[in-house]
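Supplementary Methods S3. Complex input for the 2-amino-3-ketobutyric acid-bound model.
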Amino acid sequence: MKFLVTGACGQIGSELVPVLRQRYGRYNVVVSDIDTTRLMTVFDEPSVKADVTIRKEIENVIEAYDIDVIIHLAAILSARGEENPSLAWRVNVEGLYNILEIAREYDLDMVFIPSSIAVYGPETPDNPGDIAIMRPKTLYGISKVLTELLGEYYYMKYGLDVRGLRLPGVISWKAKPGGGTTDYAVEAFYHAILRREYVFWVRPDTRLPMIYMPDVLKAFIQLIEADDNKLTVRFYNVQGMSFSAKELEEAIRKYIPDFKAYYKPDPLRQKIADSWPKTIDDTRARRDWGWRPEWDLEKMTVDMIENLSKMLLKQ
Ligand code: AKB
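Predicted complex, serialized as structure tokens:
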């Protein structure tokens, strides 16, 4: 199986690519991004500069490397998407269409695309499952609903195997997230370690579903390898934990006692956070392909502080 990972230099790609290369072989995982500097510093060959909004550039990679599976990570996240809607449209909608059309045209085996809790909105009832009311209020959320619906459509109409995880906020220490509403849950650790203080951009009672990167990587591999006959939907909720900003502050202070937290809600990001569910129901992923998260708030906090301190303080 030969993979192309788009948007490979982002938070998830930076950690997923080494895992894929370890499992399937370095030369079977081609990485692409528009950020050539990061492409060259983060990954070994095979790596290609390719823009998902330019169909020909992706087609060239598919042909040159004889790709079977696209893992489509290139996306503009929620907060950045609200600041630059036309960019979000081009990357998240036009880029998505290019990927699906290319996969159909070249008869690829699979397209794997992360979705997000951003598909939900204020009308969604608490703790939604995989099939729930989806009336998102951000362009990012709208583009992820489109991703899921088009994915299902291509699966039913053309037999293209499109599948993905509906991810909550992703916490990790190796590469920073960018442009998301939930990024405070990562930034707080950087600031706690380097400055002993952090100003949260949400209220202390803001509670959101989250997941730690090792669980994300495990879920990717499990769902990529899951037998299609076992899947009862194309996009699956997965959640590792759910905590409020205040609970995160307290968890960090257990290990960094002089950590000070302040709260200055940013109207845009607070509104987005308030429109998302506090927890999501991932029963179906547990039942269909054996999903089990291993990381909770306490365990993740210890691991984040240990690894991030080593990385940041050695510089
Ligand atoms: C964001 O905050 O935009 C992302 C997401 C939940 O998809 N982290």
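Residues 164 and 235 are 5 Å apart (CA to CA). The pocket of 2-amino-3-ketobutyric acid is lined by residues 77-78, 116-118, 140, 167-170, 180-182 (CB under 6 Å).
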